[in-house]
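User: Run a structure prediction on this.
Assistant: Running it now.
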Amino acid sequence: MSRSHIDLLRDPHFITNTIIEHNQLRNILSRLNTPVLIDYAQDLIKTIVITEFNKQTPTAAIIPIVDASSPIKKEILSTVLSEKELDIIHRYALDITQASLNLSKEPMGMGFNGDKALGTDQHVFAILGPHRGQYYGEIAVVFKRELMLHPSSHFSIPAATLFPNGHVYTCLPWVIDYGTQDSRIHQFYKSKLHCSVSGYEYAAATLLIAIIGKDNKTTSIDMNDVIRWWEKVDSHMVFESYLPSRIPLSYIDHVYMPEIVFNSLTCQAQHSARTIFRDKLTVTNNNGKLYETYLFEQFTKRFDPNTNELSTSKGTMINLFA
């Protein structure tokens, strides 16, 4: 999820709504045949969330528990729902709240000050191609290419963060710096490429050739030149993609992680990873530079050297949350 979405995890009302939208809980709540009973169930969830917030954030202002009649409402709900269903509601509400609080304490992403101005805090950051940025963590997630057809997905070269600080004008010396923050952000907006727009691949390839060949003043660049350049530069210099703020697990194509990282996970997390990803999960005994090299080799294997034509697939994908 995006940095802005993670920030919402500090809001108990947002967490309550998230829990209510959980598929299994929605199935249970659908059995409640009156608006009053549905309100009782939602109030019960809200009480669990707020109680946990107050327990885990003792230094913050105490959030008032708006409903002191939860035991009575729970008793009424027990006439319609089984004890097992009530336990599921309590367990899911507690687990999701605790996970949300833990994630909000150590949010992912670098939290660059310019992200909000650029609008990139609304996206999940990724690299369109092999990722060399080991400083972002050792778990590598490969998404399915269809995700780039989502209306919210786009990419740029170089990374968005290089526009406000002016470093982009060293990478792209043919771009004029008008000197103001607004003009630089506007140039980032104009540099964005969308995979659903015809001809995006030609624009991306032309820009990549210009960047790689500018020092030697050549446009004679092949795939081997691209791979060698990609391997030695920082990930902020290559195609940085900006994905939707929330991505379903079904759009994950593969997950890589070192064995030492996998073993550091809780037994429950290990079981969940193996159950959810199955043969899409690769745990390797490579570490450090060996792991970085291993990942790069795995990613570059995905390039087909015999492809004579660029992909002409076009379209738009929209996720509808039920």
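The mean pLDDT is 87.
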